[in-house]
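dumping this here so i dont lose it
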């Protein structure tokens, strides 16, 4: 599960990480009044930031650093009135309905700091770079040596000496070292305490020297968190941050029906039972030159109504040129799937080719049901095994 930047900033602030002040707004009028308050309180720059579950906002023009209330109003009008397109959004972009109006900070250096799970090492890992900011993907790609990683001890977590040593590696000095170390320790605590799978601050900035802070201040000005969905039952505060408007509507619909649906870029819709079978179904489609449009896992004991809903979702997807049903009935009974196919045929109609491979519990009953309904299923072909099914569906859509 993802949350918005303004919510992530609250988590960091509550964890003790220095974060500039600001407020989330949903209208131009509110953006203007928050800006008035910030400038009245003495800020000299403000930042207007689109709150969407995608990065690359800076380059897309959806992070604007401005120095007057008027410019905040203009930036808010632009962001709330246009869709944001970045390499991390779908091609048609994302609608922006929330903005963060924040205190701006002067920047001397931009660092990258994150914690995530390193599956190869099987530990949580701190990741840092002296070259943070909007080019971090390019830095990671072209000069991986500029990215530093520190594994966290499974029981002791991050130890202060590791963070301090990292500070020197990044070229920090004087009072910056202690501030950076504190931020790392706090980030590690928030990461563990919230069952996060990613906690990222990019950039973590160092402000220019002032009289009060001769070595500058270490401040987080962007934050991105992902969480383990399976932990949400014990993370009520995090779960409450969930914003359904940021999710794929078909994936939400499937979730409501107790199904698990993942939308992909190809044109073959896949209805399967079990994640492992879903993976091998997609592999074999690709092996035969096809591209899956999605996979919908009906699980073990979905009701007939849920399976019918599954077909509605798959057939309603743009660009679905064919459907492959691949069920290995263990707990799931094949006849239930067959009934749902017939129900979907009556309700929505299969205009695209349908290839069905059923095996396992009640398969004979299922075959009879499909045989009987074959008049209403003119585009249906049955397959003898997975290989045959993939070959047939790929041929049918090409
Ligand atoms: P992202 O592009 O979606 O990652 O959005 P960020 O919040 O990271 O902002 C992108 C870039 O805008 C940062 O790397 C900074 O260079 C700049 N930026 C953001 N906030 C401020 C700020 O308060 N002051 C200044 N001077 N620049 C900022
Ligand atoms: Mn950023």
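and the seq i came up w/
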């Amino acid at each position: 599960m993802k949350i918005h930047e303004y919510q992530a900033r609250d988590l960091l602030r509550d964890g003790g990480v220095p974060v500039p002040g600001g407020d989330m707004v949903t209208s131009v009028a509110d953006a203007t009044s928050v800006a008035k308050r910030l400038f009245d309180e003495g800020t000299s720059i403000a930042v207007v930031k689109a709150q969407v579950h995608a990065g690359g906002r800076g380059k897309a023009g959806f992070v604007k650093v401005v120095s007057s209330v008027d410019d905040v109003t203009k930036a808010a009008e632009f962001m709330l009135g246009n869709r944001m397109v970045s390499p991390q959004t779908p091609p048609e972009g994302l609608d922006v309905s929330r903005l963060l109006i924040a205190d701006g900070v002067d920047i001397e250096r931009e660092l990258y700091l994150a914690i995530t799970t390193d599956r190869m090492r099987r530990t949580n890992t701190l990741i840092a770079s002296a070259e943070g900011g909007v080019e971090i993907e390019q830095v990671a790609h072209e000069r991986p040596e500029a990215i530093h990683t520190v594994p966290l001890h499974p029981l002791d977590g991050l130890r202060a000496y590791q963070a301090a040593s990292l500070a020197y590696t990044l070229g920090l000095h004087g009072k910056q070292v202690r501030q950076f170390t504190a931020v790392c320790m706090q980030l590690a605590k928030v990461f563990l305490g919230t069952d996060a799978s990613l906690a990222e601050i990019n950039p973590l900035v160092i402000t220019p020297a002032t009289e009060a802070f001769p070595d500058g201040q270490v401040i987080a000005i962007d934050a991105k968190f992902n969480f383990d969905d399976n932990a949400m039952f014990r993370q009520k505060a995090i779960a409450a941050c969930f914003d359904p408007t940021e999710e794929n509507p078909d994936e939400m619909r499937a979730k409501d029906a107790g199904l698990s649906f993942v939308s992909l870029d190809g044109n073959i819709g896949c209805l399967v039972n079990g994640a492992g079978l879903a993976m091998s179904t997609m592999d074999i489609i690709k092996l035969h030159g096809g591209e899956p449009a999605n996979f919908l896992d009906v699980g073990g004991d979905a009701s007939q109504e849920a399976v019918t809903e599954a077909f509605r979702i798959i057939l309603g997807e743009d660009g679905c040129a064919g459907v492959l049903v691949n069920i290995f009935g263990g707990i799931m009974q094949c006849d239930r799937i067959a009934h749902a196919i017939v129900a979907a045929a009556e309700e929505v109609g299969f205009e695209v080719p349908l290839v069905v491979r059923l095996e396992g519990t009640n398969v004979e009953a299922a075959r009879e049901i499909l045989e009987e309904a074959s008049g209403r299923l003119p585009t249906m072909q049955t397959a003898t095994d997975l290989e045959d099914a993939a070959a047939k569906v790929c041929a049918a859509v090409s």
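The first helix runs from residue 5 to 14.
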